[in-house]
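To whoever is on call:

I kicked off a structure prediction for a single chain this morning and the downstream step that reads the tokens threw a length-mismatch warning. I double-checked the sequence; it's 286 residues and nothing unusual in it as far as I can see. Pasting both halves so you can look.
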Amino acid sequence: MEKERPIEYKVSALKTRVGNHPILQAFPQPGMDHANPFLLLHHLKIERQSGDHPLLYVPPHPHRGFCPVSLVFDGAVEHRDSLGNDEIIDEGGVQWITAGKGIIHSEKEALNENGKKYCNFQLIQLWINLREQDKLSDPSYLPLTKDQLPKVPFEGRKSKVKLISGNYKSIVGPERRTSDINIFTIESVKGEHLCFDLPHKHQVIVYQLEGVSRIGNEFVEPGDLVYFEPEKGKIKISILESGKILLLSAEQWKEKVVAHGPFVMNREIEIMEAIRDFETGQMGRM
């Protein structure tokens, strides 16, 4: 039997803000700048039972050189962009933006079918890098409903595991341009044990949104992130309290990362070019 992969470290997400909204930032943070190709993980959770929080609204802004990916766990998000897309992503869905050479978009929290705010709203935004040769590719937008995300079967388990991108045990995620990057969402059920046999060359990240898990000798609570270096060994998650989990795995990229605000490139001069192209309208207009 293959051994369990040892944990490299566990960190707790930092509290920060996007506009008027408090969020958790799992990375970058001191001690974990990024895990290229994973560059940023923001976690926003609004519970309106405890107060009348304003609707989330992020005004039009540009991106270049990476993929901003939004995973909607509760509520719904309305997206508009400079390509002409206007979509609402409901609970359980994902929007995958490949910014490429440039896109401008806005996001706001959508109302429910009765025209009222959702009681709960929960979103993960994940920034995934693009390879140097793809950074100036044509931008694209892929909306995915929860029914378009394939389930990964775990025999005898009630926990629901879905694959957004990558390949796992003959299951292929619907986002095909990043087939070497695995992104799983997990609705975990108390008392169950989940074991993932991921490629040994992959670094692995587990982020706990809700509930409590035990991984190795660590108790993992909401806002905790566990990181594994590439190494032989399976990833085992014991569910102590039902919840929601994000699991990421990919080979480490050795390309240089130069980031400035909404732009992620390989060289400082390319950041200057991105700013120029945005200011002169070459990334399109809303």
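Update from on-call: the warning came from a stale cache, not from the record. Cleared it. Sanity check on the structure: The longest strand covers residues 235-251.
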